[in-house]
């Protein structure tokens, strides 16, 4: 099984930056993909950014040019650098992991990001 722990959320003013971290309980190199999702009040959970084992990256159009996903295999950690934050970025951000087999996806507990003055 995979355990994911997120950190780095908080309150930030519009235009500010935050860096989220997701630490996995095992080697992330063996995973098919990892990503960040977010869910705002009253809205569906949506994919923000993903990184595949091949190194391929995927971003939601709403965050392209502002957010960047990266990983450190030695630390079993995936990061989400968020710049130029907007009020509409306010949400709970969840780390996600997917294996090569048919197991259900793994999820972290979530970390709150609030963009407000």
Tell me the span between the first and last alpha carbons.
40 Å
Estimated helix fraction: under 10%
Largest sheet: 7 strands, mixed
Number of helices: 0
Description:
The chain has 117 residues and is mainly β. Helices cover 0% and strands 50% of the residues. The chain has no helices and 11 strands. Strands 2, 4, 5, 6, 9, 10 and 11 form a 7-stranded mixed beta sheet that branches. Strands 1-3-8-7 form a 4-stranded antiparallel beta sheet, with no helix packed on it. A hairpin with a 7-residue loop joins strand 9 and strand 10. The protein is globular.
Gist?
With 117 residues, the chain is mainly β. Helix content is 0%, strand content 50%. It contains no helices and eleven strands.
List keywords for this structure.
7-stranded mixed sheet, mainly beta, 11 strands, 117 residues, 4-stranded antiparallel sheet, globular
Write the layout of secondary structure elements.
Layout (H helix, E strand, L loop, with lengths): L3 E4 L2 E3 L5 E7 L8 E7 L6 E7 L4 E3 L7 E6 L4 E6 L8 E8 L7 E2 L3 E5 L2
Parallel strand pairs: 2-11
Antiparallel strand pairs: 1-3, 3-8, 4-5, 4-9, 5-6, 7-8, 9-10, 9-11
């Amino acid at each position: 099984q995979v355990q994911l722990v997120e950190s780095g959320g908080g309150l930030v003013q519009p235009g500010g930056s935050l860096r989220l971290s997701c630490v996995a309980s095992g080697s992330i190199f063996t995973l098919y993909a990892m990503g960040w999702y977010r869910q705002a009040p009253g809205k569906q959970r949506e994919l923000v950014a993903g990184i595949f084992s091949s190194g391929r990256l995927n971003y939601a159009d709403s965050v392209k040019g502002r957010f960047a996903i990266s990983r450190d295999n030695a630390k079993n950690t995936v990061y989400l650098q968020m710049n130029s934050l907007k009020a509409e970025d306010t949400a709970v951000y969840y780390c996600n992991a997917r294996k090569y087999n048919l197991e259900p996806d793994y999820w972290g507990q979530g970390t709150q990001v609030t963009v407000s003055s």
